[in-house]
Amino acid sequence: PRTKPMTLPSLPEGYRAAVFGASGGIGAALVNALASDDRCALIHAGSRRNHPAETARIRPFTFDLQDEWSIEGAASLIAADDGVDLVLVATGRLHAPGLQPEKSNRSLEAAALHEAFAINTIGPALIAKRMLPLLPRNRRAIFGVLSARVGSISDNRLGGWHSYRASKAALNMLVCTFAIEQARTHPQTVCVALHPGTVDTGLSKPFQSGVATEKLFTPARSANHLLAVLDTLTPAQSGRVFAWDGQEITP
């Protein structure tokens, strides 16, 4: 079925958005969903390489998740372009050459741990450092970052996936800390981590065999769910982790 156009009525008419990780499956879907909202005036779409914009409202920019100065440059560009009301960080890495989810602690390697934390924790934290101050102080604004249910310590029943779990748990703690600090200066900001479900992207591809068809989302479906959840959250819920269906995930 065709995905319905997404709207974010909780944000003001003419709101501006920035998506970091716009070339990934979920990131690209978030950009497309925002582009379908006529109330969204501009979408800054960030990736490692420039991608041509499909509409005039999409403005591509480049950044490197492991280069803070490129993130600072992107933030400066966005700040000079009338600021931003919605920031989405759609980055993350579960596997890559030399990085695979561990089945036991015997598989732990320092290099893999460093990479997992660099991509899943440190990069998003540096984006938050540069982007949270740009959000408006006097009205609603949203900062959302992709996390994962497996980052929940209390929900860990199976073990394994040490690097990924730990890096996402650390990210969730950072989001909680950012929210506390942001509330002092930007009391209407919602700052949360998001679990997108199991999405049919390259990140989950090797691990889809045991996933029921109805629980494997297209990127477009996941993006619409996430935006719908963000639209309902209040500043009182800032600092928490929410799943695609709006359910809170305990730390």
Question: What is the beta-strand fraction?
Answer: 15-25%
Mean of pLDDT: 93
Q: Note the quaternary state here.
A: single chain
- Biggest β-sheet, characterized? 8 strands, mixed
- The chain-level structural class is alpha/beta
Number of helices: 5
User: How many DSSP-defined strands?
Assistant: 10
Span from first to last CA? 35 Å
Q: Give me the Rg, rounded.
A: 17 Å
Low-confidence stretches: none
- Helix content estimate: 25-40%
Cross-sheet strand order for the largest sheet: 3-2-1-4-5-6-9-10
Overall, the morphology is globular
Polypeptide structure, described:
Strands 3-2-1-4-5-6-9-10 form an 8-stranded mixed sheet, sandwiched between helices. A two-stranded parallel ribbon has the order 7-8. It is globular. It is built from 5 helices and 10 strands; from the N terminus they run βαββαβαβαβββαββ. The protein is 33% helix and 18% strand. The chain is of the alpha/beta class. The mean pLDDT is 93. A hairpin with a 4-residue loop joins strand 9 and strand 10. Helix 3 packs parallel to helix 4.
